[in-house]
Automatic annotation (TrEMBL):
One of its GO terms (biological process) is phospholipid translocation. Keywords: Glycoprotein, Membrane, Transmembrane, Transmembrane helix. This is Cell cycle control protein 50C. It is found in: Membrane. The keyword Ribonucleoprotein does not apply. GO terms for cellular component: endoplasmic reticulum; Golgi apparatus; plasma membrane. Belongs to the CDC50/LEM3 family. Transmembrane segments: none annotated.
């Protein structure tokens, strides 16, 4: 059947009052807003005045490790196909998060900069699927739904049920490769 992959964090206090409010819902709806008047501080702008997109402590601390799963079949290793999309709640993806309107996403984010701890800007979060970028990126949306507890799990991927994985994961040995990102 369906197989879901989660990541779990311990002692990560997303429930701290100042952390929970550190976001701009108007910005996440794709609106052009003055984030100086938002609750995003201290993650609103860089010293040179360039606004952060997305702003706030929640976005800045987004989970960015990568996890790959491999099926060990006889003497070969097969990478298990994982789905990056369809992992967020429908209402979040279609109601609460929108990209800014523009003819392309990179121009929509022109004049802004990525949060300090991000490796790449919001419009390049998924280089394989252009529809999964910006504020509507599933990994980003899942992360922005903060946990009430210091120990929590978030949905990371689902197994794509194709080829030998059509019925789920066959019995056998598997290997995880986890790439830690700072």
């Amino acid at each position: 059947g369906d197989v879901f992959m989660y990541y779990g964090l311990q002692n990560f206090y997303q429930n701290h009052r100042r952390y929970v409010i550190s976001r701009s819902d108007a910005q996440l709806l794709g609106r052009n807003v003055n984030i100086q008047k938002s609750y995003c501080a201290p993650f609103t702008t860089y010293r040179n005045g360039t606004p952060m997109a997305p702003c706030g402590a929640i976005a800045n601390s987004m989970f960015n490790d990568t996890i790959d799963l491999f099926y060990n079949l006889n003497s070969s290793v097969i990478q298990v196909p994982l789905l990056k999309t369809g992992n967020s709640w429908w209402t979040d993806k279609n109601v609460k998060f929108r990209n800014p309107k523009s003819y392309n996403l990179s121009s929509a984010f022109a004049g802004t900069a990525r949060p300090p701890y991000w490796q790449k800007p919001a419009y390049l979060l998924d280089e394989e699927d252009e529809r999964n970028n910006g504020y509507v990126n599933d990994d980003f949306i899942v992360w922005m739904r903060v946990s009430a507890f210091a120990t929590f799990r978030n949905l990371y991927r689902r197994v794509n049920r194709v080829r030998q994985f059509a019925d789920g994961l066959p019995a056998g040995n598997y290997t995880f490769r986890i790439s830690y990102s700072i």
